[in-house]
Amino acid sequence: MHIEGNNSLKQLEEELIIRKNIYNFLGAYFYNPQSAEELKKLIEENPFEELKNIHLNEYFMKGTDLLEEFCKNNLETEPQQLSKRLKEEFYRLFIGPERLKAPPYESVYLGKDKIVFDVQTLQIRDCYRCWGLEVEKKYQEPDDHIGIELQFMSYLIDQAVLSLNGKKETLYENLLDQQYFLSQHILAFGPDFFQLVIHNTQEDFYQGLAFLAHGFIKEDLNYLRQLQKEWEPYFKMAQAI
């Protein structure tokens, strides 16, 4: 990709927006159980047919297949009934009251004592603060919840889009921040979390989300590394001016 060309910049913007939307979608659905209205809209739109055109890896394709079938199989399902069923599974997997099947907190996987609100929570909080952000319920909900981390990636990408349409020299630093947060945090525990979801649920919906997310974050790091290489000369040139 030649970053100086308008066509290439337009293509990059489109790629960034796709990434932003995927992270936002995954973050929202791993953070909260969705309402009947939201599920009804998702099933009717079935965006996973289009996502299947993005050939990333087997995990990603497995996820899109499961989610596409979920949408097709539940077209006639009463939305309130479906929402109730998925909410019960969401609580069983991620909230409790019984022992969590798939704890959604980074510190549980990486912390010395395998508990919530460990040092990883504070590290994540610092990452958010660097971008002027703060979790609304930070003393009730740990900052290192997988859903919040995925949505933070969506925010960073949104800022990258703004940089692309404004001060392009700031895009390179944004890409470094994305790469750091993804590699040092989300990828440091995400694969283990997603595997727990896959092995502990029979719901195609949550299996599909986990497969899709697992495949996506792995390939996204490769994408960011390549993008960083392409933008590095531009950044150095801007710094020299």
**Radius of gyration, rounded?**
19 Å
The helix/strand class is mainly alpha
Counted beta strands: 0
Query: Fraction of residues in helices?
Result: over 70%
Number of discrete domains: 1
Order of helices and strands: HHHHHHHHHH
Give the overall silhouette: globular
With helices defined by DSSP (H or I, 4 residues minimum), what is the helix count? 10
CATH fold naming: TorD-like
Overall pLDDT confidence: 91
Strand content: under 5%
**CATH class assignment:** Mainly Alpha
Compute the separation of the termini in Å. Answer: 23 Å
Examine the secondary-structure arrangement and name the CATH architecture: Orthogonal Bundle
Largest sheet geometry: none
Unreliable sequence segments? 1-5
Give a quick summary of the entry.
With 241 residues, the protein is mainly α.
Task: Report on this structure.
With 241 residues, the chain is mainly alpha-helical. It has one domain: TorD-like (Orthogonal Bundle), CATH 1.10.3480. It has ten helices and no strands. It has helices spanning 6-31, 36-45, 48-51, 58-73, 79-95, 106-110, 119-130, 146-164, 169-200, 204-240. Mean pLDDT is 91; it is low at 1-5.
Task: Give the arrangement of secondary structure elements.
Elements: H1 6-31, H2 36-45, H3 48-51, H4 58-73, H5 79-95, H6 106-110, H7 119-130, H8 146-164, H9 169-200, H10 204-240
Helix pairs in contact: 1-8, 2-5, 4-10, 8-9, 9-10
List keywords for this structure.
0% strand, mainly alpha, 10 helices, 241 residues, globular, TorD-like
